[in-house]
Structure formats: C-alpha cells, structure tokens
Amino acid sequence: MKNTLRIGTALIGLTLASMAATAAAQTVEIGGTTLDLGESRADTLAIANAQFDVSPTGTSGHYNLYPKPRAGDSWDTPRGPAIGSLTLEDGRLVRVTHNLGSFRSEDAEAAIENLIAAFDRAPASGERPSVHTDRAGSGQGGTSRVYFSYPDRVIQIVIYRPDFEGGMATIDITEQYALRGGSRPQSTPMAE
Q1: Which parts of the sequence are annotated with region: Disordered (predicted)?
Q2: DSSP string, 117-144
C-alpha cells in the first residue's frame, strides 16, 4: 500500500511537472515567424536564418534580426533597422525582442522621457494598470489609442493618421487626472 501510494504520488508529481513545463512554454511571433522560448539553439537559429538576415552582436548569444534582402538589392543597399533580436543562453532561446519602431527628434525624446516619468509616478503598491485600446476613423483620418488606467490617473497614447497623402502621423502622450463624484480621484478612458 505504501509503495502504491509513493508510486501514485510520484506519477502525480511528474504529471504536474510536465504540465507546468508545457504551460511555461511560450510562443512568440516576430516578422511573420513563430519562435518558441526554450527551443534549442540549433532549431532556433535554423528557423531564424530561413526567415531573416541574422547578425551576431558583440554580446555572446545575442543576435539581431534584419529583413532578408529583396530580389534586385545590391550588396550596398542599406538593409534598414533590425526588426528584433534573439538571446540564446545555455543552448536555449531565452528572449525575443521585437522592435516596435523608433523615431528621432527632440520632441520625441521629451515625449518618451515624460512617458517613462509618468509610469514611474504610477502607484508602486503592486497595482497594475488596466489597459484598454480603441480605434476610430473618419473621412479625414484614423485615430488609435491605448489607455493605461490607474486608480488616480490615466496615461494615454494617441496616434492620429490623416487620410491625405503625405500627411504625417501625430503622436500625443498624456497623463490625465479627473475628480469624479466628490473629491475622490477616479480614472476612466477620457476623450481628447
């Protein structure tokens, strides 16, 4: 009876460990390619090399991913910015970074610094923001928004894209506070 109980307990433990390992596996999509965190180095690099121009960086196990050259590109055609990177440690894929975009200007630098500062000021009591997105369009353009709602504020990122050709997108980042129902601050996504 004791041996049966021990074997049963061991099988349950192995099953739970197997389920946890399966649940811990994470699939990441980058540039139309799917990679599995925890995948072997060889398999990861085989998949990456088939889809991207993979370039090692100065850091061991770190690779930048660039779009493959297009037919007709010459050797001196600029390849553009990296679309992301891979980090391999102990023979496994441990990190995939997807570059979401970058822009260079004094206004952009100030906006991003202010965004980081707004998140720094967010409640540090372990509260996580609720995140909401929406999109709207009209005859003149389209607007996309993401709201990070905390108990006392909303941090909002808005992108407005005009429909007319040559119109540059406008990106606004705001931190909003509102008093509602007396003196208690509450946050809800607010219109511009």
Answers
A1: 124-144
A2: HHHHHS--SS---EEEEEEEE-SSEEEE
Q: What does the chain come to in residues?
A: 192
Establish if 55 belongs to a structural domain. yes
Give the CATH number, domain containing residue 64. 3.30.2030
Render pLDDT for 8-67 as a digit per residue (tens, 0 to 9): 333 344 333 444 444 456 898 998 999 999 999 999 999 999 999 999 998 899 999 999
Contact 138, 124 (CB under 8 A): no
Q: Flag whether 46 is in a domain.
A: yes
Q: Which residue has the higher pLDDT, 76 or 114?
A: 114
Residue 5 lies in a domain: no
> Which pairing describes strands 33-37 and 84-89: parallel, antiparallel, or unpaired?
unpaired
DSSP state of 68: P
Over the stretch 139-187, which tens digit does the pLDDT of each residue have?
A: 788 899 999 988 878 889 998 888 876 778 888 888 887 765 544 344 4
Is residue 4, in this structure, part of any structural domain at all?
no
Domain that holds residue 144: 27-70+79-178
